[in-house]
Predict the structure.
Amino acid sequence: MKQQTRLLALGTLFVFFSLHQQAQAQAEDVPRFEIGAQFSSLTIREPSFGNVRTEPGFGGRATFNFTDYLAAEAQVDFYPNDSRRESVSSGGRTTTGLFGVKAGKRFERFGVFGKVRPGFVHFARTISGFSVDPNSLPSQFPFIVREFRARTEFAIDIGGVLEFYPTRRIVTRFDIGDTIIRYKERTIMFPTFAPGPPPITGVVFSTRPSETKHSFQFSAGIGFRF
């Protein structure tokens, strides 16, 4: 009986040691770092007027794999189309920066993950107000000109990730997500004038409340693991 107990104990230790070694080997086999590039598209829904436009772009990504199931990552995308649409919220070239986590299940040849990544969306050219062109005065009908500024809004990207591993060092990746943008309160300046000689000019202000809009985001790219 004692001999059987010893054999059982030795067998249990052997199995435990084997599993521990296998787990260590798998952990060591997982590349910790990834860098990649991707093509992206972002469908922007503007507040107030509800205009929708889809911008193509490109960017880069860096990932650190804590385990097979959990990773931290940062992604920056640039959308080069210089939108000249009159908008107080989202005009000009667009840049997004997202920093968060990815968690899910990784298999031998593919992986499926969910992602939550807060960050920002930067619009390079939005309307900040209107003013009277001083060169058009003292005309009774002065020209009105637009004034522009850049805006940066808080955003959070929530969605899913599908990865394929053709080799140990290469990963191809497809992202689908909802980039939720929180547009801050916006105050716009409008000129007023009364014809005359000379015309009398002044300004009034219009404030639009903060709004939250959902923006569909898709990207496809390739990365290298090391």
The helical segments are 2-29. The radius of gyration is 28 Å. Residues 129 and 192 are 12 Å apart (CA to CA).
